[in-house]
């Protein structure tokens, strides 16, 4: 793809990546956005006026419920040479109330020849367009009567989109340099309307019969299997696909490409195919097997067969998100699907398996049972995220996915601890707000509260409940309370009679509390934002409990009025059986059977809350970790590290206490505890890197290296071990090399030179390549060599490691070049630009570049990646979250403060950014002297011990 650079005072210049002067990059922004963005309100401020000046007869963003679609007949003809498409949509309507107006969606397309096919004959309809709400009004001169059969037919034409949504263009280069063009769809959440006129809301489910016109050199795939191909005059072919079952518009998909595919059949008889560009088809075997295995797993687990005869998985060369669950045709980023057994890493394997598990989970959660509206997005995204772990735990025990789940809860808590957070179920109206729902709250918090509920109800009861939910609401739309009802009184439900034997046996055996009000408990987690901090104080046998909202703010009044029903779990020094207690009130007291040395709440962090051990609590835990850390599980240790450092941020615990606790990490080996140790300690020096305080920064870096030196030294430079061990190895060696730990740098340098001398043919152990590339990319020659290999590699996971290594270098001109390359999208795809910008922003030599780039190109970025998308939010928060000075806060405020509603001023990520920087400033003001003193004391002590 080529970006057009608008040079002030001169005509538009098309500059390809190779000839573009690098210096222009920051001086010349991309052309400003011309696309009008939507305002905030659900209702137009003034009476809406259609494009032709006539009043538009509907003034809301949501469509009226007077008419709904039953069936769509779609014929789509993309032209991959002229990069546009035409189509015909014939929609069968269900008229619920007499009306002469049909309101539906269409966005940025020309509409023509609109007809009403009524029982009394065919008549033209008058069309009004209201682009502001992406709506069309079709006006009939006679009334459409309730209960009678009508159809509308519309012809339409538009350009293939240059973004990553709607019906969009994608392209790739073959190894011989030829550029091939294809077209693919991404409709979630509100982009089906940009591909064909439709009732584009999730509750308007209908059947779709799709036909695609293509050239013989291409193939077309869609949600359903192809039933026949018809030759058209002029040599074009028309593929006819079978009619879908009832589904929402956002799940419709079709692709026209030159892809190849591989296929297998599941035990349940579903044909699975994986599609990719021809030169990467040999990297599809892993995904094919995983999809077969996981679809069979879900078929069994949900006790509902997969609804379609086939499922295709397609790796799309240009893709904004990670993957999309279109019914019968899920789509993926190439890195999310393609696996090379010799070159892909353990974490690639884990990632690919999880993405497939996620999209296949949606075939039930989301596709079969769909949220009524986007406010309850979590009902599918929280579930799919959660099911990634449930399905892998059972189908791929060797991946030990359990080692990673609590990372999701930490991620969720990070955004949920700010006052800009929002409840899991949140009212949303316009497309930007809908996009913003695809965040860590819907996904990660959603998954964590489901996990907490499963732990509380027991896995068996939970499974029965969710199966009842899926069966009860198949082909329908739901709100959160439908789920809670299905999880209440599971053993007394009539549905159970038809359920499986194992569930009936479970209910016969177990005396489940029948009066349990699941809804009352769960409403406290989905209808209010944030999460509780439970303070625990042990006095003899008495355990005093209290709850309050954990919030990173100066203003204590903001924490008032929150109350959760918290399923507490705990164990003590005298009993490692898990004890349970549902804390419903602000304070309560528990009595232990005997006095104990320590208590640990939130066992294995199966709950979504933080715990503060008041009084002597933290000290007894620190003693335990120092002397016998394996008395607690790795997850418990990770949880304690997280909690203690997070409590420093809100002034509940002194920094010294948290640092004293961190000392035990020199004996830690479990992945989650180690990475959480890094996760809390590394940001401290990352903040300093963006300020002028090299001495303390280096002291802190030295402390962390010292802490993990033993573990780093014990790492083999091979690919041996379990997935967790391998993921940990990559992580540790990368850290050690980036931190200039001499043994690591020496070894990586040797290996890089050997690899370079072999012209890249030497096969390095996969786990260590990241560390080796990062060291190689430190010199201009090494960087250039890596870049040459990047250009020509067809292995997506290798390319992705090379790309990261290239952005970690301290060579400023190379960093600029990277951002430049990704902007032009030739050698490095524009889909990777956000990742490159974020990676450069974490680099002490690149953070200014990243911030300047973000500001200078804001309008183009939001046009390309869409306002409110997680791509944009991620870039905004990640580029700025390591700033900790008032000057930087002012600069950030001044830029985002200058935006208008149309250019994103209302985005939640801006508030998150302000709050995060304010929190960093507070942290530094309070804790820098303490950190300095503690590190001094420690180095003094260590020097003393060495004597
Ligand atoms: N439904 C989403 C894809 C999506 C994301 C559509 C944002 C519209 C806006 C899909 O199921 C999904 O959640 N994809 C994830 C990957 C997954 C493994 C968590 C993604 O794209 O990040
Ligand atoms: Zn999803």
Short recap of the structure:
InterPro entries: Aminopeptidase_N-like_N, Aminopeptidase_N-like_N_sf, ERAP1-like_C_dom, M1_APN-typ, Peptidase_M1, Peptidase_M1_aminopeptidases, Peptidase_M1_dom, Peptidase_M4/M1_CTD_sf. The chain is an alpha+beta fold and 947 residues long.
Question: Descriptors for this entry?
Answer:
947 residues, alpha+beta, Immunoglobulin-like, Zincin-like fold, 8-stranded mixed β-sheet, 5-stranded mixed β-sheet, 30 helices, 31 strands, 20% strand, globular, disordered N terminus, binds ligand BES, binds zinc ion
| Annotation, overall tally of beta strands | 31
CATH fold type of the domain at 714-946: Zincin-like fold
Q: Spatial order of the strands in the main sheet?
A: 7-6-10-4-3-13-16-15
Could you name the ranges where pLDDT drops below 50 across 5 or more consecutive residues? 1-41
Shape category? globular
Molecules bound to protein: ligand BES, zinc ion
Q: How many helical elements?
A: 30
State the share of residues found in helices, binned by percent.
40-55%
CATH class of the domain at 714-946: Mainly Alpha
Mean pLDDT: 93
Query: Radius of gyration, Cα only, in angstroms?
Result: 29 Å
CATH architecture descriptor text of the domain at 714-946? Alpha Horseshoe
Query: Major sheet, described briefly?
Result: 8 strands, mixed
**Fraction of residues in β-strands:** 15-25%
Distance between the termini: 63 Å
Structural class: alpha+beta
